[in-house]
């Protein structure tokens, strides 16, 4: 009888399913390069992205969030709202050509895209010469929910990075 109980417990233990959770961590802090298809301007909407192999984190920030002036206090933009953040998983390694070529290449394909449900984009601006402005972009409280309604855990993207603009 103990033998059957042991076999039954083993089947249950090794046969458990994690609910097909594909994403456990969204980690772009180690990726320092922020990419954009066009020059970044303070007076236009900007699409910025980071690529980590077959994953991409895409920020769409509104005109005016980046200002060509030193900020005394940080500027914030709510997600969703004026700003958007998307997380994509691709079928293979992705390059900036996927985002910048028109039309985009046929491969890689998007396996999953998740829009941020809440959070804030925080921008602090500094300058050294009143011509070139450095914008430090941080993310706060970003929540991604997959199509099953499960929250992505271990979100590690607080420091998105820096971009520069020039006075026009």
Observed structural traits:
mainly beta, 168 residues, 41% strand, 11% helix, two-stranded parallel sheet, single chain, 9 strands
SSE blueprint and pairings:
Elements lengths: L1 H13 L11 E2 L18 E7 L2 E7 L13 E5 L4 E7 L5 H5 L9 E18 L4 E13 L10 E2 L2 E8 L2
Parallel strand pairs: 1-8
Antiparallel strand pairs: 2-3, 3-5, 4-6, 5-6, 6-7, 7-9
Describe the structure.
This protein has 168 residues and is mainly β. The protein is built from two helices and nine strands, in the order H-E-E-E-E-E-H-E-E-E-E. Strands 2, 3, 4, 5, 6, 7 and 9 form a seven-stranded antiparallel beta sheet that branches. Strands 1-8 form a two-stranded parallel ribbon. The longest helix is centred in the first third of the chain and has 13 residues, at 2-14. The radius of gyration is 21 Å and the shape is globular. The chain starts with a helix and ends with a strand.
């Amino acid at each position: 009888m103990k033998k059957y109980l042991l076999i039954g417990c083993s089947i249950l233990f090794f046969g458990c399913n994690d609910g097909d959770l594909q994403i456990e961590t969204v980690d772009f802090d180690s990726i320092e390069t922020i990419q954009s298809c066009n020059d970044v301007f303070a007076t236009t909407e900007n699409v910025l992205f980071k690529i980590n192999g077959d994953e991409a984190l895409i920020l769409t920030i509104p005109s005016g969030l980046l200002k060509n002036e030193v900020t005394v206090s940080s500027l914030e933009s709510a997600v969703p709202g004026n700003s958007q953040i998307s997380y994509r998983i691709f079928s293979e390694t992705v390059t900036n050509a996927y985002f910048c070529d028109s039309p985009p290449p046929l491969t890689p394909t998007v396996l999953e895209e998740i829009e941020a449900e809440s959070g804030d984009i925080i921008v602090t601006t500094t300058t050294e010469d009143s011509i070139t402005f450095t914008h430090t972009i941080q993310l706060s409280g970003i929540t991604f929910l997959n199509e099953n309604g499960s929250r992505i855990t271990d979100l590690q993207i607080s420091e998105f990075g820096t971009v520069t603009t020039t006075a026009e």
